[in-house]
Amino acid sequence: MIKKKIIYLIFFLIILAMSLVNNYLTFLFVLSFLTIFLTPITAKNSNIDIFDPYIGLSILFFLYSVSTVIYVQIYGQTFYKEEFTETALLKYISIVLIGQVGLSTAYFFSKKHTVKKKFFKKKLSENNIIRLSIVLSALLFPFFYKKFNLFNVESYSNTALSSRLDRMSDATAGLRDVFLIDIPVTILLSASTILLFRKNHILQFRLLGLLILSLYIGTSLLSGWRSEVVSAIILISIYYHYQINKISLNTAILGSSLAYVLINLISILRSSPDIYNIAETFSDYTGSFGYNFLSITGSSELLTSTNLLRLVVGIESGEVEFTYGFTALSQLLVLIPRFIWPNRPLSASENFVDTFYPGVLESGGGYGLFFLIEGYWDFGVIGVFIYTVFFYLIIHRLYTTLVINFSYGVYGVFIYSLLYGIAVLPSVRSGMLGTYKMAALVSTPFIFLIIFSRIKK
Questions:
Q1: Cβ contact 142:181 at 8 Å
Q2: In a domain, 129, yes or no
Q3: Exposure of 12 by Cβ count < 10 A (0-12 exposed, 13-18 middle, 19+ buried)?
Q4: What's the pLDDT band for 270 if we cut at 50, 70, 90?
Q5: Are 261 and 294 in contact (CB under 8 A)?
Q6: How far apart (Å, rounded) are the C-alpha atoms in residues 141 and 300?
Q7: pLDDT on residue 89
Q8: How far, in Å, CA of 216 to CA of 22, rounded?
Q9: What is the secondary structure of 235-275 as a DSSP string?
Q10: N or C: which end of the chain has fewer CB within 10 A?
Q11: Is the pLDDT of residue 58 over 80?
Q12: How many domains in the chain?
């Protein structure tokens, strides 16, 4: 749990560090953002769970947002070498602050909660997950074995664009991957996590769980799929936190710091077409740029927030107009598979890159979709506030239902781990609505297990 005194200390240290930037606009932005972020926390007379979505989402939102503020003032242009006006930057800052006001408002008015310590049907639930993983692995292993093949890893630089093009050309490719790869892999990782931490298991079973998890994380790490690495670590961490022992604040800070280093390191290493030359790739990068990839302006991952500034410039110049709800609608229409509706509208991220960077989408590329773009592109500043309020209220309701009230036992814990790792945190770089489709589909087996358990009862 995070204590209020520690929050004040973190607040003071960040403000002190940012004051050394010697830039008043950046300093005022950081001061304003953190004040908005911390005010509802200190106003509530309760401790904070480290996996409360408000905490992780706000911190990640801050890192992405401030990276663009600092970057454009240092280099005088965006990460993609584009010009911007001072008015556009000020508007960007105001939009970000209003977005955090929306999150903080929703958090403040959300129902207070206390984590319960009793688990619901723990043994029965865990055994069902293990049984399901055995069945799915036996049936579908030929489709997903590459995810665990540490000895024949395919580089991200060789597969990323081609896999996106395959999905664009084949209307059923996405669903095939979800049901033949993503779902069985998720169930297997969940079962392996149970095997690893269940104390009454014999040593061989615990080692088996550790082996399976290590093979998956190692393969994903070497291949450059950072989202898979992060999602797996989050799944393991959330299970341990709610089912075994609460993760301390010190451990959470250390883990988050290591995750920051790892994610940015992967961004460099995955550019190598040959995984056996990643050491050479890293050496070449550090020889030219040092360890700049660890700085907040050197992280290509964080600079996805530049997209919001590009949209502000586009609307300011008349290049594009507000869409008055179509952006959010297009995100919802993505739920309809392409084999049912081949000509469905582009998703918001696809529409963004197709509008501002013609030709990139057709080649299989993409620039992500920053957290606030859907709301701002639809209805401007008002849309940002409304969207962030409802976004957090929905997340908070799921959070309290799944892990705080333990209404669905260990099933709920795993569903929340998927929600947190696939939808909540990635929403900062992939949009509010676009990530929920994947999280909902991958959670399907756990939902069926919940229904089966209740029918059986």
A1: no
A2: yes
A3: exposed
A4: confident
A5: yes
A6: 35
A7: 94
A8: 44
A9: HHHHHIIIII-PPPHHHHHHHHHHHHHHHHHHHHHTT-SSG
A10: C
A11: yes
A12: 1
Tell me if 384 sits within 8 A of 308, measured CB to CB.
Answer: no
The answer to whether 168 and 428 are in contact (CB under 8 A) is: no
Measured distance CA(134)–CA(335) in Å, rounded: 29
Residue 206 lies in a domain: yes
Query: How does pLDDT run across 92-115, given as a tens digit for each residue?
Result: 999 999 999 999 999 998 866 544
- Which residue do the tokens 């995070």 mark? 2
Higher pLDDT, 293 or 182: 182
The closest alpha carbon to 426, from 387, 371, 383, belongs to 371
How many residues does the structure list for the chain? 457
pLDDT at residue 104 in the model: 95
Token look-up 């204590």 returns 3
Main-chain phi, psi angles of 82, to 5 degrees: -110, 150
Q: CA-to-CA distance for 76 and 69, rounded, in angstroms?
A: 11
Question: What is the 8-class DSSP label of residue 341?
Answer: -
30/206 Cα distance (integer angstroms): 45
Residue ranges making up the domain that contains 265: 122-293+390-456
* E strands in 269-407: none
pLDDT bin (cut points 50, 70, 90) of residue 87 is very high
289 token code pair: 């740029």
Instruction: Indicate the Cα dihedral angle 228, 410, 428, 154, nearest 10°.
Output: 10
What average pLDDT does range 307-316 have in this prediction? 94
Burial of 4 (0-12, 13-18, 19+ CB in 10 A): middle
Which structure tokens are listed for 222? 């070497």
Answer yes or no: is 13 within a domain: no
For 58, 197, 284, 392, 421, the CA distances from 399, given in Å and listed in that order, are 16, 23, 44, 10, 13
